[in-house]
Design goal:
Blueprint (H helix, E strand, L loop, with lengths): L1 E5 L8 E5 L9 E10 L2 H7 L16 E9 L11 E5 L8 E5 L4 E2 L6 H5 L2 H14 L7 E4 L5 H12 L3 E6 L2 H9 L4 E4 L7 H11 L4 E6 L6 H5 L2 E9 L12 H6 L2 E4 L2 H7 L1 H17 L8 E4 L3 H9 L7 E4 L1
Parallel strand pairs: 8-9, 8-11, 9-10, 11-12, 12-13, 14-15
Antiparallel strand pairs: 1-2, 3-4, 3-6, 3-15, 4-5, 5-7
Helix pairs in contact: 3-4, 3-10, 9-10
Length: 327
């Protein structure tokens, strides 16, 4: 089989398309023919050895997969050849096949395309977990989404509206502004991507949210975090989702003065801590996708041999919406 492998630490240009034997499932496992693999920021981090854990090389990045069952190991019940599935793995999705525990599988409804599923599992899972479980977002509250033109940001905008919030979306380009408006944002504005003076951001955020923010959704971090914390209302919840702009240094006296909460969001850890509850939530999201109640924009598709370009686009923050690799 083919896989886009990380052989040495480095950026996306270090990846190599190589061949390897097709793996066989062990007891309790299945083999899945990968139809589509979503690209996510952990892919950027893991190939550069900057992720939460280090993976033994060689390995293929890719954690969000949709495909069909190709082989079934001993003792597997309820799954058979040809069934359409989605799953999240620690790595390995940028390949023709992946082997995973049968317990990781979720059946994919026939009315949800592979590419849509692979573009939605992590983004909508992360955002729904963040807004519903971690922030307990309520109807009528103001939700501020940074990075609203990216995959998780767009999901947060759409889910925030579904939950009844007023959504303010910050984006890094005019191209991303249009897609955030289409996702349902009430207010959309563009912020600078290269900023050295946080006072500029503080004034901009104050203009866009003069009455403050109840829930902030931040997958960007960096220089943007402190100015946004300054807009939090008493009792607000600041969701720490990711660090596309770097890990911020925040004066914690602001949290005390604002009487707000900093809330970590780690969807992967949540899935491992409560696999049954997490899978139930994903089934709910897949049902919403199938019914058209949530409608992510069509992802940009890359062939496997060009998967590194997708990872590079995500790192460089030039991606609009979700990127998917199709072997």
């Amino acid at each position: 089989m083919r896989l886009l492998a990380s052989l040495v630490p480095g950026d996306a240009s270090s990846l190599s398309l190589v061949t390897a034997p097709v793996p066989d499932p062990e007891a309790g496992q299945v083999r899945v023919t990968v139809a589509a693999c979503g690209i996510n920021y952990p892919d950027v981090l893991m190939i550069e050895d900057r992720y939460q854990f280090t993976i033994e090389r060689p390995f293929a990045p890719g954690i969000e997969i949709a495909g069909t069952i190709d082989a079934v190991g001993d003792g597997v019940v309820g799954w058979s050849l040809g069934m359409r599935v989605v799953l999240q793995v620690d790595h390995g999705g940028l390949a023709d096949f992946v082997v995973a525990d049968a317990s990781a599988l979720i059946e994919l409804p026939a009315n949800v395309a592979f590419e849509t599923a692979a573009a939605s599992l992590l983004t909508y899972g992360t955002s729904y977990h963040a807004l519903r479980d971690r922030a307990a977002l309520r109807a009528g509250e103001t939700l501020f989404v940074l990075g609203a033109g990216g995959g998780v940001g767009l999901a947060a905008v759409e889910l925030g509206k579904m939950l009844g919030a007023r959504v303010v979306a910050g984006v890094s380009s005019s191209a991303k502004a249009g897609i955030a408006r289409k996702a349902g944002a009430d207010v959309v504005f563009e912020y600078p991507t290269n900023v050295e003076d946080q006072a500029v951001l503080a004034r901009l955020f104050a203009t866009q949210c003069p009455d403050g923010v109840d829930v902030a959704y931040d997958p960007v971090g960096g220089m943007y975090a402190e100015p946004l914390i300054r807009r939090m209302r008493q009792g607000g919840r600041y969701l720490v989702v990711g660090f596309a702009g770097g890990i911020p240094r925040v004066p914690l006296n602001l949290v005390l003065l604002k009487q707000c909460a900093l809330v970590g969001v780690f969807w992967g850890a949540a899935m491992k801590a409560d696999p049954d509850g997490s899978k139930a939530m994903l089934r709910e999201l897949l049902q919403l996708l199938g019914d058209g109640q949530i409608a992510p924009p069509a992802p940009t598709i890359f062939p496997l041999e060009r998967g590194g370009l997708a990872i590079a686009a995500l790192k460089n923050r030039t991606a609009v919406g979700k990127l998917v690799v199709r072997p």
